[in-house]
UniProtKB/TrEMBL annotation:
It is found in: Mitochondrion inner membrane. It comes from Aureobasidium mustum. Keywords: Membrane, Mitochondrion, Mitochondrion inner membrane, Repeat, Transmembrane, Transmembrane helix, Transport. Solcar repeats lie at residues 8-83, 93-179. Belongs to the mitochondrial carrier (TC 2.A.29) family. It is a multi-pass membrane protein. This is Mitochondrial carrier. It comes from the Eukaryota.
Amino acid sequence: MSDQPKPLPFVYQFIAGAVAGVSELQSSTATGEEAYNSMVDCFRKIVRNEGFSRLYRGIEAPILMEAPKRATKFAANDEWGKFYRNLFGVPKMTQSLSVLTGATAGATEAFVVVPFELVKIRLQDKAQSHKYNGLVDCVRKVVQQEGVLTLYQGLESTMWRHILWNAGYFGCIFQVRELLPKAENKNIRASQSLAPKA
């Protein structure tokens, strides 16, 4: 017999790690005025201490990001779909090809998203927000003081987020379209094309 204890199965280790993280969050207390009891308490204290506009500081970046983000997502998905169909000699999309195409489109989309997110975070971060007088000033100062590549800090984690999300998203869209009845006319085809995206 071995003196070494048998390790716990993965499921038990996973649950123990999750519970430990939750209990650590609950046992750690914030100090000063920043302590919030609930989401409503947080909202109330931010408005009282910093003003209503603080809730929307940095909102320009996500708003400006939305159009190029969506355009890149769908255009990249179409282009990567053509590329992979040619590469693998497949005449039409399949479930696995939709997942691969979506993942690659997600990686492409991340390159568009990251600079906007960096600016948003800089404008919303209380420790840094005083340095910038709006979105354009933030971009200008980041590029001048830290270099243009700084706009791509966080690329790897953003890339993984978009790869995983878009793989699932476009994989699901493919599956939903496959389950829809065949369209008999142009109007039905148009509505079926939009339905999975809703």
